[in-house]
Amino acid sequence: MSPAAPRQKYLALAVLLGPSLAGMFVFLMLPVASSLVLSFSNWDLIGEIQWIGLDNYVAALGDPVVLGALRNTLTYILGYLPATVGIALGLALLLNRRIRGRVVFRAIYFVPVVTSWVAVSLIWKWLLNPQYGLVNVALGWFGIKGPGWLFDPQWAMTGVILTSIWKDIGFVTVIYLAGLQDIPEHLYEAAALDGVTGWQRFWHITFPMLVPTTFFVTTISLISSFQVFDQVWVMTQGGPAGATSVMVELIYKNAFSYYRMGYASAISWVLFALIFAVTIAQHVLQKRVDRSDG
Amino acid sequence: MADTVMHPQRPPHPVLRTDLSPEGRGARGLDLASAPPLPGGRGRRAAPGEGAFRRSPRLNLPNLATYALLILGAGIMLLPFAWMLSTSLKTRGATFVTPPQWIPDPVTFDNYGKVFDSAPVGQFLFNSLFVSLTSTALMVLFCAMSGYAFARIEFRGRTVLFYAYLATLMIPQQVTLTPLFIIMNWLGWTNTYQALILPSSFGAFGTFLLRQFFLRLPREIEEAAFIDGAGYIRIVFTIAIHLARPALATLAVFAFMASWNSFLWPLIITTDTSMMTLPLGLSALQGRWTTDWNVLMAGTVIATVPIIAVYVFAQRFIIKGLSHTGLK
């Protein structure tokens, strides 16, 4: 590009990059740095700040409440992630078939995605009502006595997971559909010449070609499910008896109910470390898979 | 389609492909009316590469199974909404009966009245719209400008700064919550629009998306403008922004949806009912009408219908935008 005069260039930089840089600094980088600093303090928003070193971290990692929330978060991920990705892949494969009305189906599956978490959570809280909710009524038709769902510590997390799967399936399906349509047609042609059909086509062409898409959707779903909050807050507030207490809900409660700013910050950094580790692990795994593909 | 116009010089990049149909790569402008190929597919143009394994669709067994599964799935997706609507039109007595009524008897609109009486729903709606539209507009503007700067202007520290941006993508929002609340509190911005808008007006994702877009864009048009004496700033606002319209639209869709559905940050920064956004107002309604599910569902209908209406009209565009960001 034609070299602009230096003065003009710096003016352009100030105008074009300035607002973004200022915003990123004030609303993202500064809070992140402050959060790290706060995590070494026991500030309660009012009193003097006292520096307590790593005490918050030591306390958090030995706190049964934090460990419980961590376990619940992992339970949520285990229940939510494979089901969502699996069902969405299945749906995408069905929608990728040449049938009438698939655009309509795709549109329908996407409706919960645009609906807010709060609305979805309220709808499902009502659907999961033990006595009058549609879910238990439907189970009753098959002679099954439905559980107490959100009122039962054994079943509350399952209720939250079902709700989340229902809301997110359409999103993952659309991403998978895009991935399916990026598979070059000639691979299937070549396979057809070799007489490859049905399942073999899926296992030897479709599935391997969808590996990058699968990594993409699992990574973003994993990151977002570590941060699960809205549906928990609306449906159970972490209850009953802490059965659905998750990491972010704990951060929220510590910071804004108990005003333990330092402790809340420390827990948020533990969460960050977990997300970071998982993201890196996924990245390494993907690199390895890519390489083994040659 | 608009974006064909936007890449006059070259075939559309795969990332910006516009349709999702497997049969018609390059057949742009897929829509509800024309898209689904007819069974028997006689009149359909045979795409190159349709081998023996891609027979024309018939009502054979696999297709029937596909339909059965897809219809079952669609039912599971839609029934909760139907149930929401049905409940919202019931009297309290009819809400709690077994077996449940699908068609409310009697039909009542009282619940909607109760929602409007107990909360400034119009204000919630306005707040949500205002906050989402403003932050989306700002996000698109800031990201277009910074994305262009990163793509086209060479300066010392560019790479380092860009990596710093990218690094912020890894940071979960929760890490920033506490200090951000303290900063806003210190600025006296609790219960203000700027506190709701500004934190969601910046992001590395958009900058990255636009930078990638500009990097792929041929420089010739800009070169010509340079020769005509235009500077970077003028090029951004007269040329680049127009060329980048598909990428900007994608970003706008993401930013709007994120802001419209945002819950945690508004929950922290607003205590005043008149500043609440729709999700927050709806959640507050739950506190007021704990087990009056007919009233709560009326509130949920009010909160859900606007976005679903927008979605019905913008459906293809939203899904298109989403598919583009995928992976690359």
Care to give the gist of this entry?
The complex is a heterodimer of chains A (294) and B (328). With 294 residues, chain A is mostly helical. Chain A has 13 helices and no strands.
Your description of this structure?
- The complex is a heterodimer of chains A (about 290) and B (about 325).
- Chain A is mainly alpha-helical.
- Chain A folds into two domains: about 40 residues, no CATH class; about 240 residues, MetI-like fold (Orthogonal Bundle).
- Helices cover about 75% and strands about 0% of the residues of chain A.
- Chain A contains 13 helices and no strands.
- Chain B has about 325 residues and is mainly alpha-helical.
- Among the domains of chain B are: about 55 residues, no CATH class; about 170 residues, MetI-like fold, CATH 1.10.3720.10.
- Chain B has 15 helices and no strands.
- In chain B, helix 2 crosses helix 15, helix 4 packs across helix 15 and helix 5 runs antiparallel to helix 12.
- The longest helix of chain B has about 35 residues.
- At the A-B interface, helix 1, helix 3, helix 4, helix 5 and helix 7 of A face helix 2, helix 5, helix 6, helix 7 and helix 10 of B.
Helix content of chain B: 55-70%
Task: Give the C-level CATH assignment of the largest domain in chain A.
Answer: Mainly Alpha
Q: For the record, give the distance between the C-alpha atoms at the N and C termini of chain A, rounded to a whole number.
A: 37 Å
- If you consult CATH, what is the topology of the largest domain in chain A? MetI-like fold
Low-confidence stretches of chain A: none
Oligomeric state of this protein:
heterodimer
CATH homologous superfamily heading of the largest domain in chain A: MetI-like
- Largest interface chains and counts: A-B, 110 and 124 residues
